[in-house]
Amino acid sequence: MISAENRKKLEKLNNNRVVEIVEMAVDLCKPEKVTVITDSPEDIAYVRQLALKKGEEKKLAIEGHTYHFDGYYDQARDKEHTKYLLAEYEDLGLDINWIERDKGLDEILSYLDGSMEGKEMLVRFFSLGPNNSVFSLPALQITDSAYVAHSEDILYRPGYENFKSLQGSDQFFYFLHSAGRLDEKGNSKDVDKRRIYIDLQENRVLTVNNQYAGNSVGLKKLAFRLAIKKASMEGWLAEHMFITGVHGPDDRVTYFTGAFPSACGKTSTAMIPGQTIVGDDIAYLKIIDGVVRAVNVERGIFGIIQDVNPEDDPVIYKALTTPREMIFSNVLIKDGKPYWLGMGQELPEEGINFSGEWYKGKKGPDGKEVPPAHKNARYTIRISDLENCDPRYDDPEGVPIKGVVYGGRDSDTSVPVAETLSWSHGVFTGACLESETTAATLGKEGERKHNPMANLDFLAIPIGTYIENHLKFGKEAEETPRIFAVNYFLKENGTGRYLNGMLDKKIWMLWMEGRVNGEFAAIKTPIGYIPKYDDLKGLFKEHLDKEYTEEDYEEQFTIRINNYLAKFERMEEIYSDIAGIPEEFMKELKAQKERLIAAREQYKTEEISPFEFADELSA
Ligand code: SPV
Ligand code: MN
Predict the structure, then answer these.
(1) Taking the CA of residue 332 as centre, how many other CA atoms within 13 Å lie in the half-sphere pointing to its CB?
(2) pLDDT in the model for residue 283
(3) 3.40.50.2000, 3.40.47.10, 2.30.110.10, 3.40.449.10: CATH of 4-55+77-233
């Protein structure tokens, strides 16, 4: 079944476990052909050619650009069918999805059985994180989708050579994926049998009957869940975080990581004009010689394309419209050109999209009007192809982290930027992250969803353990990063008018950069340190040429005591029901509420102007 040539490529790795896994996958999935891909340019080019030959990707007019469609019902992560296989019930808290291990395995193995009949199986090796680094984790991917294997080339570092340095060890992750039976458009037919099962015991994920990258690409959110478990056991952190280099005065570059739930400005915060990007989605953080250092697990971006236009995202827009290897998914295609929502130009009234031939007013199989491009349409591109790529994006030592940022979509409570009072107050604040749903997500609009550290969808360990790990991590570091909370979505009471412009996030980042470098004093409030008016006024003038008025400042930085209290009461309700939440966290919660109540009494108002607190200056 495995040809002599391909077997030789496997045997060169001197790793019996690899051979065993590939043989198991071949016996189970019964492919017609098995192709092992090394790091050689010929092997890598073969994968892209195969995606084109099979029609999983098609060429666009611009050199190197291709497009791919996922099935009509396979346009986002399938949270309902993503489950941990657990030997026995473990309370992970927060309704984390799981299934009894034997039952789940029986089910998914039956769906994988024969899933590659008549198809070619690709076997690939990658490295999560930079090669030759204490951060890097080897990963083996087996898939029948050339699109998945090709996407991974753009998104991850090659790892075949790196596997040799394992010297036969079984300490690697592996991912077995099959798109299953395909329809005439080449999409998974049996979406009702779509399953993504995470096997923490075997460090593997099995996934079937899907193609959307968040479900299929092993190295992305599937490996991330395994990494969270591994990190927890080994004392480091795997986080749903970007990494960005913020450029301060005199060529000073300070690195920040940040976690935001989907559609809250995470990628755009990682790429604020004038700053440089290390990563936009997943980071590993370790303490090395007392310093917190972080690497981007990936080397590419699988980014939301909606609203990428020359005005708001000039760097990405330029990269998406010039020749290079990249993949568009679930956009509208007309005459060899991709179109998406919010691209800053008229869209054609017909073309091809994720529903097939598309025309304005078309109804999908679910009876709903089909938009020209899906709201979760994406681009897949290498970070090194961006003009704002940070020179240290591939540094095996990682970059030193001085600040951590948590942000959500919050219309009525959180101030635009605040530094938390301490590491443990920061961890508490991150674990209280909430975000409002938008029209762009399923379900009711404006509903608040609790999403601790923006990591709820990926937690492979109990939430109490996760919080405990964060608390410990900060204590172990000698140079503990500061933790900040941002909110780009605050609205005026009553009118619903946004209080900030799209570009204001640049000012908040620069303020944080100055703050961690000892440049700005700040005002102590019950929820953390907020900027002084004069400092913001200067930053707005210098960097956005904007007159920032005292009125702007006052409405944005007023502490809305009752709203904050309501938020922390919601948190109390959630956390007091979960076993194993650290005492330190519950103390922070109590102290947070007490500070808010005391301030309300002291200032005799529910909305305290930042000018009221102005004497409480802190270095
Ligand atoms: C996210 O939804 O957080 C993403 C895209 O980064 S996905 O690959 O679907 O996870
Ligand atoms: Mn993500």
Answers:
(1) 23
(2) 98
(3) 3.40.449.10
